[in-house]
Write a structure and sequence with these properties.
mainly alpha, 4 strands, elongated, 7 helices, 4% strand
Length: 189
C-alpha cells in the first residue's frame, strides 16, 4: 500500500475491471461520472495521499452542482439532490474498493463511516387512485393495441418502462396467468 499511482492513472485499470462486472447502463453512468466529476476533482492526487477530508471536499463540490433535467441545466439555481450526491459517491467508493483489493491502499478513504453525507429527503410518490386508473384505461380504448397493452401492463404490474419493452412471449405463462420479468432494456447514448 505504498503506491505513488495517481487516481487518474488508476481509473483506466478500474474501468477495465468494472466493464466485466457492471451492466452496460451502470458502466456508462460510472464512466461519465468518473470523467466529468471524479478525475477533475481528485485525479491529480496520489492514491496513497487521498484522505477522507479530500472526499468530504468532493462531496461539498457535488452538493453545489446545478441540477439538470433531461440533460439541461436548471436556471432556477437548484442544486442536485442529496440522493444524487450519494449515487455519485458510490462510484468513487467503488474505485477505492478496487484499489484496496489490488493492494494499492490499506483502507477505503471514501468509507461512509469517515464522511458526513447530505441528508436525503424521502420523495413523495404519487400513484394512481382506482378512479384515475379506471379513467386512464377508459381513455386507452381509442389508442393502438400496442399502447393499450403497454399501459395496461404498467398499471397492473408496476413494471418499469425498460422491463416492459424487454418482455418476450416466453416470459408469459398463459396457463398460470403469470408474467415473469427477468430483464430490462436500456438505450445508451
Amino acid at each position: 500500500a505504498n503506491s505513488s499511482l495517481r487516481l487518474s492513472d488508476f481509473v483506466p485499470k478500474y474501468l477495465e475491471v468494472a466493464k466485466t462486472t457492471l451492466s452496460p447502463a451502470t458502466y456508462e453512468f460510472y464512466s461519465h461520472n468518473i470523467n466529468d466529476y471524479i478525475v477533475p476533482a481528485l485525479g491529480h492526487l496520489k492514491l496513497k495521499d487521498i484522505r477522507p477530508s479530500h472526499i468530504q471536499q468532493y462531496i461539498k463540490q457535488l452538493t453545489e452542482l446545478p441540477k439538470k433535467t433531461r440533460g439541461q441545466l436548471q436556471e432556477n439555481g437548484e442544486t442536485i439532490a442529496a440522493s444524487t450526491v450519494r449515487r455519485y459517491l458510490t462510484v468513487l467508493q467503488s474505485i477505492f474498493k478496487q484499489a484496496v483489493k489490488q493492494g494499492l491502499l490499506n483502507e477505503n478513504p471514501a468509507n461512509v463511516e469517515h464522511l458526513t453525507l447530505p441528508k436525503a429527503q424521502v420523495p413523495k410518490i404519487d400513484i394512481f387512485t382506482k378512479q384515475e386508473a379506471a379513467q386512464m384505461l377508459a381513455a386507452l380504448e381509442k389508442e393502438d393495441l400496442q399502447f393499450q397493452t403497454l399501459i395496461q401492463l404498467a398499471i397492473f404490474t408496476g413494471a418499469r418502462r425498460g422491463e416492459l419493452i424487454a418482455l418476450k412471449f416466453s416470459d408469459i405463462d398463459f396457463e398460470q396467468r403469470k408474467i415473469t420479468i427477468e430483464r430490462s432494456a436500456y438505450k445508451i447514448t
